[in-house]
Amino acid sequence: PERWPADLPRLDLVRQGALQFEQADTDRFPCLGHAYAALRSGGGFPIVLNAANEVAVAAFLDAGLPFLSIPATIEEALEQYSGLVQTTPQSVEEIRALDAWARRSAHEIIRGLESKV
Fold it and tell me: What is the pTM of this model?
């Protein structure tokens, strides 16, 4: 119901012809590398990644964080979490607690990045 009207034809992948896929460049797109690493690590890592990403992107949109500092914020939050004793969250409450921790952590990381500028 909240879609914007678009005067574009529907995408027909059959008519598009052959598609070519290449290996993702995680050096050029570091957030993608962080996402792959979080998925491989499992447990609470994807929760930390998501929360740190949301905080970093919001800070960027509010003009409080340079765009290229988004990956650094996520990476640092993941590193801080890796230094903790990890258990896979077993309940919604544990997921929410980890999400809240990661958001606080990301805010602190951003404040630290701002003080270095």
Answer: 0.81
